[in-house]
Amino acid sequence: MTNKLKGTNCRQIFQDYFTGRLDKYIQLCKMNIDSKCYDGVYLSTYKHMYPIMLKQREALNMAFNELDEQTQAIISNSFKNDGQTAETLANEYNMTTNNIRRLVTQFRHSYADHGGTDETEKQLLQPISDQIKAEKKREHSNN
Q: Who contacts 16 (Cβ-Cβ below 8 Å, separation ≥6)?
């Protein structure tokens, strides 16, 4: 049975992966954990994020490596550039738009089957954002 993941969240995660941002997020997360400069909600958030992002990368690697060369190119090009639409790719690869969309959907299902999640970097950092807002609110009320 295939996991149900939000397509819009997966799109962001896939874009992060294919543009190299996911690797950068993982490196920054690890640096923040290892730096001993953070505690409280900051450290717990980074410690929570790190294994999730590692699992996302692993699931994406496994799903991507199962594809043939042409499908890898189509999937990669689908997410490297925001301007790439299914229509553009269909013309480029002499396929129908529906076939391109079907490949992307199959890739998302494969990602889910390999344990991928639909938690975006922004969602994972939400506790830190909430903490910063609370600190600013306290600062403002003290003035």
A: 22, 25, 120, 121
Task: Cite the DSSP H helix spans in 66-125.
Answer: 69-80, 86-93, 97-113, 121-124
Residue type at 70? Answer: Q
Q: What is the pLDDT of residue 40?
A: 87
* 10 contacts: CB under 8 Å, gap ≥ 6: 108, 111, 116, 118
Could you identify the residue written with the tokens 């990602």?
A: 111
In this prediction, residue 62 carries a pLDDT of 97
pLDDT recorded at residue 13: 93
Cβ atoms of 121 and 23 closer than 8 Å: no
- CA angle at residue 54 from 67 to 58, to 5 degrees? 20
Paired tokens of 75: 């999937």
Low pLDDT (below 70) residues in the chain: 1-4, 143
